[in-house]
Amino acid sequence: MEQLCPRCHEQQVAKSSTSNVTRQAGLVGLLIARSVSSYNCPACGKIPLAEFPEEFQSGVKKKRLFSILGAVGVFALVIVLLFVRELM
Ligand SMILES: [Zn+2]
After folding, report:
1. Ligand 1 mean position, distance from CA 21 (Å)
2. Ligand 1: centre distance to CA 80 (Å)
3. In Å, what is the CA distance from 83 to each residue of 64, 79, 80?
4. Where are the domains of the chain?
5. Which residues 6+ apart lie within 8 Å of 4 measured at CB?
6. What is the pLDDT of residue 75?
7. I want to staple 56 with a disulfide (CB 3.0 to 4.6 A). Which of 11, 25, 47, 52 is the partner?
8. What are 1-27's pLDDT values in tens digits?
């Protein structure tokens, strides 16, 4: 997703990468890191999500929702598979 910086309107913002610490925290840590990660402009630095246009914000929120739903879905699937295995 490419988005121009809301401050200078010249540079494209990039999502700040998650640190090694959050990666080691596993899936939940990654999800938390994702939900709080901010965007960086090469010229202006960190830009909070609130400064972006409404359209971009809702797109990011939708992405987050889907990533959380996906994680929950995989988790539920694993539980179901384990449960089915127990019954067989
Ligand atoms: Zn900028």
Report:
1. 28
2. 47
3. 29, 6, 5
4. 14-87
5. 10, 11, 12, 13
6. 95
7. 52
8. 678 999 999 999 988 765 555 556 676
